[in-house]
Design brief:
Length: 120
């Protein structure tokens, strides 16, 4: 019903205001609640808390996020599917923030992300 996993993420996005290409690499703990199981898929809710992250830029659309080292938080819903539940699809909202460990901490909000993954 409840599980704890480790996750890794490579993200890339393009900003609207200043047309910047930014990427991030994260490693994080995942807390997952599986609320239903059936023969086709296993849906779940999840929360990612404070995963260390490296951002390719510290100024994003003119906002100073502090340093390139930051943390990644996210929450959302998803499901495992496939014969061995080896695939997953997720919808999440996310936030990058240095948690005020540096003087500047504008943070970056990612409103909605869809991802596909493979569990091994």
């Amino acid at each position: 019903m409840f599980s704890f996993d480790l996750g890794a993420n490579f993200s890339w996005w393009n900003t609207n205001a200043m047309d910047q290409n930014i990427w991030a690499v994260s490693l994080y703990p995942v807390f997952r609640f599986n609320f239903l199981r059936n023969k086709y898929f296993d849906p779940y809710f999840f929360y990612i808390l404070g995963g260390p992250t490296y951002l390719s830029q510290s100024y994003i659309d003119g906002n100073d996020t502090g340093r390139r080292f930051t943390f990644y938080d996210a929450l959302g819903t998803g499901l495992f599917f496939g014969q061995k539940r080896q695939y997953n699809a997720e919808l999440r909202i996310a936030h990058y923030s240095n948690g005020n460990i540096f003087p500047m901490n504008c943070g970056v909000k990612i409103p909605l992300t869809f991802s596909l993954g493979y569990a091994f």
